[in-house]
Structures are given as structure tokens and as C-alpha cells.
Amino acid sequence: MKNIEHIGIAVKDLEQSGGLYERLLGSPCYKTEEVPSEGVNTAFFKVGENKIELLAATHDESPIARFLEKRGEGIHHIAFKVADILSEMERLKSEGFVLLNEVPKQGADQKLVCFVHPKETGGVLIELCQDLLLY
Ligand code: CO
């Protein structure tokens, strides 16, 4: 794995929390994007070389809606950048980790992503992400 690509934070209201993070970081949101496959709306902020991803649910069955119900607002996942997501997925499986998706899927911000079950990672949901090559 390379660097931490972003930290994902679950929020109830994207607009309200977006305003909060603009004030907190002193920089504007540079991108918003809906990811229908995950049932989320996202807003991205830059902090130096790092990113913060705010996630709000778009419907009640969204994983973010279930997270908010159980745990409330707060840190939802940590995303690590990987050069080769397929080989990293194989490596993690061989180490006994459980992947939440068997094939990489398209995430926000032009990334291929895979999530690792928090049960085997001490309660932290991990996202692997690889830059999506655009042809
Ligand atoms: Co993420």
C-alpha cells in the first residue's frame, strides 16, 4: 500500500457538514459527486496532500444510512492508495482479510475501489483505491 488517499467521514447533511469543513480547513470543497452504486453523495476537500471525503446517504438502504443509524456521524473509513488493486486484494485475502467486494468497483473521484471488512481490521473499514485509467 502507498499513502493514505483520503479519510471518509459519514455525515447526515452534506451541505451543512460541507460548510463546517470549509470553515474548519479554511478551503472550499473542490468536488461533489454522487455514487449511485453506493447510495452516497460525496464532497471532497484537500488538506495539503491529503483529502477528506464527506459521505451522505441518498436513500435509507445506503450503507451510510445504516452506519449513521448504528454509530452516528464520524469517521467511516480510511482509504489507502494502491498501485495494483487486484494484486493487493489477492495479498490481503491470503493474509486472511475478508473483502466486501470480490471485484474492484468504480468509486468516487475516478478510482477503482475495494473495501475490507472491519471485522478483521480491528473495527476500521478500509478502502483500497487505485487511480482509474481513462482511455
Ligand atoms: Co472513500
SSE diagram, text form:
Layout: E1 4-10, H1 14-25, E2 31-35, E3 40-47, E4 50-57, H2 63-71, E5 74-81, H3 85-94, E6 105-107, E7 111-116, E8 126-131
Parallel strand pairs: 1-4, 5-8
Antiparallel strand pairs: 1-5, 2-3, 3-4, 6-7, 7-8
The structure holds cobalt (II) ion.
Cobalt (II) ion binds next to β1 and β5.
The total of beta strands comes to 8
Alpha-beta classification: alpha+beta
Instruction: Give me the strand/helix succession.
Output: EHEEEHEHEEE
Strand order of the largest sheet: 2-3-4-1-5-8-7-6
Q: List the bound ligands.
A: cobalt (II) ion
Taking all Cα atoms into account, the compactness measure Rg is 15 Å
Portion in beta strands: 35-45%
Shape: globular
Q: Alpha-carbon distance between the termini? A: 24 Å
As residue ranges, the low-confidence spans are none
Number of helices: 3
Question: What is the makeup of the main sheet?
Answer: 8 strands, mixed
The average pLDDT is 95
Oligomer: single chain
Relative helix content:
10-25%
Please, could you describe this protein's structure?
With 135 residues, the chain is an alpha+beta fold. The protein has three helices and eight strands. Strands 2-3-4-1-5-8-7-6 form an eight-stranded mixed β-sheet. The protein is globular, with a radius of gyration of 15 Å. The two termini are 24 Å apart. It binds cobalt (II) ion. Cobalt (II) ion binds next to strand 1 and strand 5.
